Write the structure tokens for this entry.
Amino acid sequence: MINVFPWLRHLPGDMFGAKRYIQCHHDLDAMFSDPFIMQKTKEYEEGGDALDNFISAYVHERRRKEQNGETTSMDGGHLRRLLGNLFIAGSETTATTMLWFMLYMLHYPHIQEKIFAELEEKVGYNRRPTMQDKPRLPYLNAVIMETQRRASIAPFSLSRLCTADVTLQGYVIPRGTRVVTNLDSVLLDEVTWGDPFNFRPERFLDQYGGLLHPEEFVPFSMGRRVCLGESLAKMELFLFLAALVQRFRLLPSESGQPPPQRAQFGVTCPPEPFKLKFIERVDKS
Ligand code: HEM
């Protein structure tokens, strides 16, 4: 609600949790962003730091603009907000997708075993999977894609403001309108997927077992403002989940009783908290 109607945060009390959320942001700044900003700015100013990180690059660009007398909105507060956005956009989303993957593995043990069989054949046990293995593991890729589709963790994407009057399929959208995209309407569309509510990774595989990339697969949204971290997220999901299934069998904490597949509704939708067991697959002793 707050994401769509930000003015609700001014209501007395904290009915929508906005004040708690803002406090979390401040805590995150104090614990994480501020110490990093100080350290990296100092390193940059002492000339010992190459432009190999976001903060140094930001400080460098800000100084350049100031020295050239250009007007700029770049300042400490802006940098802090950018880091906060990257932190949330980059960690919350990927972690939530991984949680759903683990939950689905508890519900569909035969899928988990099929991923393991593919890993066993193509990678073995003696080394961790790498990005070079990705094209050779279509079934795992299909399960990750099906997780992203079925869980649809960012159902309302990010809301955007229209910068100009637009007419779209006969509808006039005036400048300044807040536009909320409904990714669920694509990811869970019955006409496109046939059985959208079933967890069926095979929908992303062709008859030869090759990976399909339907254009309706849009968990990262699409167009000019498509997720900035799409490639990084895909890499993280693949490396983490491949290594996880290679090493552990995931089981419900109560035998035969996987936790419910219920989402907590928010800007991202993680599953309700659940417990599970990680059983190491290979005894290294
Ligand atoms: C599974 C993981 C992820 C999912 C499902 C996801 C999804 C999305 C979606 C739906 C949007 C909105 C795009 C739009 O408005 O049309 C978005 C934007 C964005 N994402 Fe992600 N994201 C993920 C991971 C990441 C990562 C790892 C990063 C960065 C390290 C990241 C950074 C961003 C940023 C900065 C934007 C705003 C882009 C802009 O305004 O132009 N995301 N993401």
The longest strand covers residues 248-252. Residues 92-280 form a domain with the Cytochrome p450 fold (CATH 1.10.630.10). The mean pLDDT is 93. Residues 76-107 form the longest helix (32 residues).
